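Supplementary Methods, section 5.1.

A reviewer requested that the exact input to the structure prediction be made available. We therefore reproduce it here, unchanged from the version used in the analyses.
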Amino acid sequence: MKMINAQRPFMTAVMLLFLPCLACAASDVGAQAVVNSEPVLALDTFRAALVLITTIFIVPILLELAVGFVYISFKKLDSRILLYVLVANVVSFPVGFLAVIILSSFIPSPAFVLLLSGLLVVVLETLVIYYPSRNVFSLTHAFLFSLLLNVVGLSAEWLAVEYAATLMAGWVL
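The structure derived from this sequence is encoded token-by-token as follows.
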């Protein structure tokens, strides 16, 4: 599939954002296949970016919304909170990636970079969820709710990235 020139800068930016995450999460099997240069499937950049966006962004959001739905159903809270969760995720996703990129240039430890960017995401999502629903949530309650959602979402994201890395191990981009 030939891409027109107007799409190339966008796809390059998308790949620059998503490939480091995929490379960090690649399993030993996937890394070994890449080192051996045994292409399993030739794939264009757009399709690879679509797979990465799905695994890194959409799967955790769907799981976070499902956990949020169970939580607000159990607590009998307003269902608009799910909309706030969705908005919080859409806002915090690029902020988290930018935080990782910026912090990794100053901090040598990848684990500490991920911890700090994760904390930034939790605080940002707490504020986005708390502000419109402050008559339902206290700030502490909103923080714990955001922390629960992010632990579940990060776990799902880690598993999805591991699966995608194994799946895409031999693809030629």
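Residues 113 and 160 are 20 Å apart (CA to CA). These observations are discussed further in the main text.
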